[in-house]
Design a protein that fits this description.
349 residues, 70% helix
C-alpha cells in the first residue's frame, strides 16, 4: 500500500459520492425526454439534497434511537458497498475486501435497518413497506448470489477483483452463461432499487409503494441521507453490472496511466446504462405486488441456468482427464489420508 494507491482510493470514494445523485438526475431526465416532458435537469437531485439539509428535522415522539441512527447506517453501508466495487482500478487498498458474498451481506444489513426503522414508529404505511421490502429482498438475494456464482465459477474465486481481472485483462472469451446472468442481474437491479416494474420511485399511492412507504416519517437531513443512500445503491448496482459484464476499460494493477481512460469509459457506461434503465421504465408499467414473486422467480431461474453450463463444463474437464492424472490425484488423496490416520492424537483423561 503506497501513498498513490491511497490517493486513488480516496479519489474513487469521492467520485462515487458525487456521481450518485448525478446518475439519478440523468435517469430522471431521460425518462422525462422519453415521455415528451422537459424535465427538471440532471442537477435537480443536488438541489433537493441541499434543500433538505437546510431544513429542521421533525421526529415522532415515540421515535427510538434506532430510527434516528438508521439514515446514517444506511448511508454508510451504501457508500461502503459502492466504494468496494472496482470502478477505476483493481489494486486499490480496499481491493482485498471485495468479496461478492460480503457485498450481498452489506445490502442485506442496510435492508434490515431500514425495515426496522420503518416499523419503529408504528404507522400502517411503514409496516406495510417493511414487509414488502423484506419479501423483495428474500426473493432477490438468492438470484443475486447465483449471478455472482456464475462469474465465480469462471474465475474460480468469489473476489470481484479476480473476476474483473479474469474477464477483462486476460484472453478474450465469450461465455454464453453470462448472458443468462446478465438478464437475471437486470431484473434484480430493478427490484432492489425500487424501479419499474417492481416499484415506482415517484409514487405515493399506499397500495403500490414499497420503498417510499418506509421513509414517509423521515424529513430534513435524515430524508436527505436516505435519498442519497438510494442513489448510492443504484450506482453500486450499476458499477457491479459494469464489473461483471462490461469490465473492459478498468485499469490493470499498477497501470496508473490508464486511469484517465478508465474514468472516461466509466462515465460513458453509466450514461448508456442510465439511458437504458430509463427506456425500460418508460416501456413497462408497474406490475401488481402479487406478481413480484413470479418476476423474481424468473430471475433466479435464469441465474441458475447461467451456472449450469459452467458446472457441466468443469465436470466434463475432470471426466476427460488422462488416466495418469487421475491416478496421481487419487494417490495424493490416499497419501494425505494415511498421514492423517498415522498422526498422533491427544488422549482424553
Amino acid at each position: 500500500m503506497t501513498f498513490t494507491t491511497i490517493f486513488f482510493q480516496l479519489l474513487q470514494n469521492g467520485l462515487i459520492l458525487v456521481t450518485a445523485p448525478l446518475l439519478l438526475g440523468w435517469i430522471n431526465q431521460c425518462r422525462a425526454l422519453l415521455q415528451n416532458r422537459s424535465g427538471a435537469g440532471v442537477l435537480q437531485p443536488y438541489r433537493n439534497l441541499i434543500k433538505l439539509f437546510y431544513k429542521d428535522a421533525v421526529l415522532a415522539h415515540n421515535a427510538s434511537p434506532l430510527f434516528r441512527a438508521t439514515p446514517y447506517i444506511l448511508f454508510a453501508c451504501m457508500w461502503l458497498a459502492a466504494a468496494l466495487v472496482p470502478v477505476l482500478a483493481t489494486d486499490l487498498p480496499l481491493s482485498p475486501a471485495v468479496d461478492v458474498i460480503a457485498l450481498v451481506g452489506i445490502f442485506a444489513l442496510a435492508r434490515v435497518f431500514i425495515s426496522l426503522a420503518a416499523m419503529d414508529i408504528g404507522t400502517a404505511f411503514g409496516s406495510l413497506g417493511a414487509r414488502r421490502e423484506m419479501l423483495v429482498g428474500f426473493l432477490a438475494e438468492p438470484a443475486l448470489l447465483m449471478v455472482f456464482f456464475t462469474a465465480s465459477t469462471i474465475s474460480q474465486s468469489t473476489s470481484l477483483i479476480t473476476i474483473v481481472e479474469t474477464l477483462a485483462h486476460k484472453q478474450l472469451v465469450l461465455y454464453p452463461s453470462m448472458s443468462f446472468a446478465a438478464v437475471a442481474f437486470i431484473m434484480v437491479l430493478l427490484a432492489e432499487n425500487a424501479r419499474i416494474p417492481v416499484d415506482n420511485p415517484t409514487t405515493h399511492l399506499e397500495l403500490t409503494m414499497i420503498h417510499e412507504a418506509m421513509i414517509l416519517e423521515y424529513s430534513a437531513r435524515h430524508l436527505a441521507l436516505v435519498e442519497w443512500a438510494s442513489a448510492l445503491k443504484l450506482l453500486a448496482y450499476m458499477t457491479i453490472g459494469i464489473a461483471l459484464f462490461v469490465p473492459w476499460g478498468i485499469a490493470e494493477s499498477g497501470d496508473w496511466k490508464a486511469l484517465p481512460l478508465a474514468v472516461l469509459l466509466l462515465f460513458i457506461k453509466l450514461l448508456v446504462g442510465g439511458a437504458g434503465l430509463a427506456l425500460m421504465e418508460t416501456l413497462n408499467s408497474k406490475m401488481r405486488v402479487f406478481r413480484v414473486p413470479e418476476f423474481m422467480g424468473t430471475a433466479f431461474l435464469l441465474a441458475v441456468l447461467g451456472c449450469l453450463p459452467t458446472f457441466c463444463w468443469r465436470a466434463h474437464e475432470y471426466s476427460v482427464l488422462r488416466p495418469t492424472d487421475q491416478y496421481v490425484r487419487s494417490a495424493a488423496a490416499a497419501d494425505r489420508f494415511r498421514h492423517a490416520i498415522a498422526a498422533p492424537h491427544p488422549v482424553a483423561d
